[in-house]
Amino acid sequence: MNDGAFIEFLVIAIGAGTPLVWASVGEILTERSGILNLGVEGMMLVGAVTAYWVAVTTGTLMLGVLAGALAGAALAGIHGVLSIGLRANQIVSGIALVILGSGLSTYLGSGGDDPLSSRALDAPFGQLLPDALADLPLVGPVFFGHDLLVYGSWAFTAAAALYLSRTRAGLEARAVGEDPAAADAAGITVNRVRYVHTLLGGAAAGVAGSYLTLALFGSWQDNLSAGTGWIAIAIVIFSAWRPLRALLAAYLFGALTSFGFNLQLLDVPLPLSVLAALPYVITLAALIVLSNTRASRRLSAPAALARPYWRESR
Predict the structure, then answer these.
(1) Does residue 272 register a pLDDT over 70?
(2) Is residue 234 predicted with pLDDT exceeding 60?
C-alpha cells in the first residue's frame, strides 16, 4: 500500500521542500524586522559547503549542521553590518552576498589536493523514527519516514509562527518592521532587533544548505542549490510573510520538483531542461499573476521593509 506512486510523490515533495522551509521561514523572520536579505542563495551555499566539510572531517552530522548554521549566520552578519550599521542599499548588499557566497563555496569546495567533491560522507541523514511507524499504511511514509532535519523544520516553523504572534519579542520585531520610529519611541532598540533577526535568518539558510549536502544529495558539488534560495524568497511573498503558509508553499514547490522527476519515470517526451526549469517557470508565472490581481493587496509586506532607519530622523 505504501509503494503507490502518490505516496512516493508526497515523500519526495517533502524532502525536496525541506530546504525551502528552512530558508523561507528564516527569511520571514528577517523581513518581519524590516530587513530584506536577498542573499539567501549565497548563505545556503556557504552553509552547505561548511556543513559538508565539518561532517566529513569529524564524522558527526549534527556538528556539520551546527557549522552550516554558523556559516550562514556569519554571512548574514555581513549583510547586517552593511544594511543596518552602514545603511547601505539592502538589495545591492543582498545580491553581493549571493556573489560572495557562490564564489566562496566554490573555492572552499574545490580547493586543495583533496577537494570536497571527491570526499564521501560515512552516511547521510536517514530515517529518524522506527520502521514500525514508517511502515504504517498511508500515513507512515508521509509522516514518520523522514530524517531529523525534516522534523526540525516542522518544529522551527511552528516556533516561528508562535514567536511572531504570541511573544513579546516577536511582536517587537513586527513593530520594528512596520514602523521603526514608533518602536524606537516605545523603547525598543531597533538596530538590535534587526541584527538578531538577520542572524536568525542567516542561520536558518545555513541549515537549509546543510540539508542539501547532508541529507538530500549526500555529497558536495558546485552551486548545488541551483536557485533554491531565490525560490525561498518568492515563497515569502506567496505566504504573505506567514510561517505556516510558507511550509505549505515550500512543499508545493517540492512537489513541482518531484513532478518533473515522475514525468521522467513515466517516459513523458519532454526535454530534461524543461522539467528542471518547471519550478522556476511556475514561480515567475505566479508572481506575474499575483501582481495583477486583487490577491496582491493581501500580500502586503512589512511597511518598513528594505528601508534603513536613522534614529536622528525621528
Answers:
(1) no
(2) yes
Contact (CB, 8 A) for 15 and 8:
no
Q: 281: burial class by Cβ within 10 Å (0-12, 13-18, 19+)?
A: exposed
C-alpha–C-alpha distance, residues 187 and 197, integer Å: 18
Please, what sign has the CA dihedral across residues 144, 150, 153, 155? Answer: positive
Please provide the DSSP assignment of 171-223 as one string.
Answer: HHHHHHHH-HHHHHHTT--HHHHHHHHHHHHHHHHHHHHHHIIIIISSS--TT
Q: How far is CA 240 from CA 55, 177, 189, in A?
A: 35, 14, 25
Residue for grid cell 534614529: 311
Sequence-distant (≥ 6) Cβ neighbours of residue 140 within 8 angstroms: 2, 133, 134
- Asked whether 259 and 2 are in contact (CB, 8 A), the reply is no
Q: Which of 12, 254, 23 has the alpha carbon at shortest distance from 153?
A: 23
Query: Where do the domains of the chain lie?
Result: 17-227+302-313
Grid cell digits, residue 100 = 560572495
From residue 15, alpha-carbon distances to 33, 70, 93, 108, 207 in Å are 29, 23, 31, 26, 14
C-alpha cell at 210: 546543510
Here the cell at position 240 is 504573505
pTM of the model: 0.91
DSSP 271: -
pLDDT of amino acid 295: 52
Q: Which residues of 98-122 are buried (b: 16+ CB within 10 A; e: fewer)?
A: bebbbebbeebbeeeeeebeeeebe
Give dist(CA 303, CA 236) in Å, integer: 15
Identify the band that residue 82 occupies on the pLDDT scale cut at 50, 70 and 90. very high
Cell of 247: 511550509
Q: Around Cβ 7, how many Cβ atoms within 10 Å?
A: 18
